[in-house]
């Protein structure tokens, strides 16, 4: 199969995944307020109906449906906190029977115990209403999902825009910090790009992130432009890869630690375990790579020797070995990643507060890293569809409606897009120029040092290179 055909197929698959994810979200989202009632009849069908007049959770009566009839609060049902329940099997002593849990009816103000459960037999598909006492389980069934699923239109109307303003104003700090982190990694590889120039390249990459797959699409642009300033282009490209890996690893650590502090929450347990596995695997991989005996014993050296483009592979291995000789640089870059993620999480928390999500502030430190991680996967532009799906799954049992989860993700994405698009100013200013004559002279001086084994000499840059600062690179 030809390379262009493979790229087309890959592109189709990525967009297909994005479309499926977006379809799933749009199918479940509600633009108007909704409640759940059981329609009369033997089948116990649960119907979602529109509720009028901006109903609240504690209202005694609700005006519903197109005919605007009134129902009591005790007539409303909501989603359960689990998918299945088990009851004692009357036909086999000591055995249990599994049911699919469809809906629950709360006893009072949420969160509250359930007073009735609507269950469905897995084989016959017959439904019936049972009391919670019939369920064989150690954990009591509690109702956490709201009775009224607030629609998008009402959420936007009632949003606290002051929180959204804070969310927007917090984000620029992350761009400054990521630029500094990358500058540190470039400098350790003896690639002479000034801090101001590094910032511009980073912002140009952010601009490309606005429309390229995943939140890492702009890394390709960063790697391309950075490689123009060094003869060791593989090193320059590798700095972008290492920068991204360090950032993601710090995100795993931060999310995993905060999830472990909330071990009693099932979703947090899953996140903590997954983060622990990734961090452990990364540590094991680094141990193998930087231990010659293990590298030979595990066959890693043999595998590296069989890879295509051996010249580039050798240069990449050499660059990684340079990092291994500078552990302080890596540790410092790793530590610099935490303020970046703290800024992102705080911004997302402000967005959640703006839309009145019923989440504790600590829970954002678990779900936002997960949303950010899946958004970094190059599947669709800005992780469309994928981020929403995971947000819904992580919050649906915490009293957050689908509309609220989507609003949270959309606010996170729109805040990022706002600054990414604003970064297009660096492109529009026409700042893509080759080094000035004075800068080129300085780079050539650095190149002479590289010939003696000190600093690599940058290659002449073309006219379409990175937006540069007006001063000399440091």
UniProtKB/TrEMBL annotation:
Domain of life: Bacteria
Predominant localisation class: membrane
InterPro entries linked to this entry: L-PG_synthase/AglD (IPR022791)
Signal peptide: none
Coiled-coil segments on the chain, per record: none
Pfam families noted in UniProt: LPG_synthase_TM
Keyword Metal-binding attached: no
Keywords per UniProt: Cell membrane, Membrane, Transmembrane, Transmembrane helix
Membrane-spanning ranges: 12-29, 161-178, 199-216, 236-259, 271-290, 329-350, 362-381, 401-428
CC terms in the record's Gene Ontology section: plasma membrane
UniProt subcellular location: Cell membrane
Xref: PANTHER family: BLL5419 PROTEIN (PTHR40277:SF1)
Name by which UniProt lists this protein: Flippase-like domain-containing protein
């Amino acid at each position: 199969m030809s390379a262009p055909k493979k790229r087309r197929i890959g592109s189709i698959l990525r967009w297909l995944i994005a479309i499926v994810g977006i379809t799933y979200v749009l199918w479940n989202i509600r633009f108007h307020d909704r409640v759940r009632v059981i329609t009369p009849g033997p089948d116990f069908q649960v119907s979602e109906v529109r509720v009028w007049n901006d109903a609240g959770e504690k209202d005694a009566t609700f005006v519903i449906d197109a005919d605007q009839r009134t129902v009591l609060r005790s007539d409303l049902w909501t989603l359960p906190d689990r998918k299945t329940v088990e009851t004692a099997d009357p036909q086999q002593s000591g055995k249990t029977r599994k049911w699919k849990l469809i809906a629950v009816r709360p006893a009072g103000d949420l969160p509250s115990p359930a007073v009735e459960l609507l269950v469905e037999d897995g084989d016959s598909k017959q439904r019936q209403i049972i009391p919670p006492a019939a369920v064989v389980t150690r954990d009591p069934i509690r109702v956490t999902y709201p009775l009224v699923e607030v629609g998008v239109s009402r959420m936007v109307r009632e949003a606290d825009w002051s929180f959204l303003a804070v969310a927007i104003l917090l984000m620029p700090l992350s761009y400054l910090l990521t630029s500094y982190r990358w500058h540190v990694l470039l400098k350790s590889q003896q690639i002479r790009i000034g801090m101001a120039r590094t910032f511009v390249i980073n912002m140009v990459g952010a601009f490309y992130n606005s429309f390229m797959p995943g939140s890492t699409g702009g890394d390709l642009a960063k790697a391309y432009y950075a490689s123009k300033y060094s003869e060791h282009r593989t090193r320059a490209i590798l700095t972008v890869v290492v920068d991204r890996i360090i950032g993601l690893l710090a995100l795993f650590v931060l999310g995993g630690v905060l999830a472990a502090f909330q071990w009693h929450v099932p979703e947090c347990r899953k996140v903590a375990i997954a983060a622990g596995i990734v961090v452990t695997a990364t540590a094991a991989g680094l141990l193998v790579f930087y231990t010659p005996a293990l590298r030979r014993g595990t066959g890693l050296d043999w595998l590296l020797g069989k890879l295509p483009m051996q010249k580039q592979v050798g240069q990449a291995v050499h660059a990684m070995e340079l990092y291994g000789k500078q552990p302080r640089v890596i540790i410092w870059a790793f530590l610099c990643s935490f303020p970046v993620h703290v800024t992102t999480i705080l911004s997302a928390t402000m967005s959640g507060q703006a839309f009145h999500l019923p989440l504790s502030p600590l829970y954002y430190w678990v779900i936002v890293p997960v949303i950010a991680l899946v958004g970094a996967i190059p599947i669709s532009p800005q992780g469309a569809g994928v981020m929403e799906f995971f947000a819904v799954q992580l919050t649906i049992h915490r009293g957050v409606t689908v509309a609220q989860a989507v609003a949270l993700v959309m606010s996170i994405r729109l805040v990022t897009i706002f600054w990414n698009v604003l970064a297009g100013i660096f492109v529009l200013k026409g700042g893509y120029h080759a080094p000035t004559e004075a800068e080129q002279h300085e780079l050539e001086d650095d190149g002479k040092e590289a010939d003696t084994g000190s600093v690599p000499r940058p290659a002449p840059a073309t006219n379409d290179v990175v937006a540069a600062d007006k001063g000399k690179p440091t």
